[in-house]
From TrEMBL:
Record-linked InterPro entries: DUF3243, Uncharacterised_YmfJ, YmfJ/YflH_sf
Protein species of origin: Bacillus methanolicus PB1
Gene3D superfamilies: Protein of unknown function DUF3243 (1.10.760.20)
Pfam family, one: DUF3243
Name listed for the protein in its UniProt record: DUF3243 domain-containing protein
Amino acid sequence: MSVLDNWQQWKDFLGDRLNQAQNSGMSKEVVNDLAYQIGDYLAKQVEPKNEQEKILADLWSVASPEEQHAIASMMVKLVQNDGTH
C-alpha cells in the first residue's frame, strides 16, 4: 500500500519529512519551496488516489503560481503536527 492511498498516512508521511527537514536546519522558505516543487510534480505526474488528493489536484490545476505556492504552504502548515514522531 502506497502512502498516497490513505489521506492520514499521507499527512503522517509529510509530517515526518517536515520534522526531518526542520531538524536538519532547513529554513521555512526552503521547506515551502520544496513543498511547491513536490505539489507540482504530484499534480503533473501522479494520479490522485483518494478524494482529498483529487480536490488538491483540481485546485492546483486552476491556481496561478502564486496560489500554488499558497496551497503548498498551507499543506506544510496542515502537517506540522502530524507524523509518527
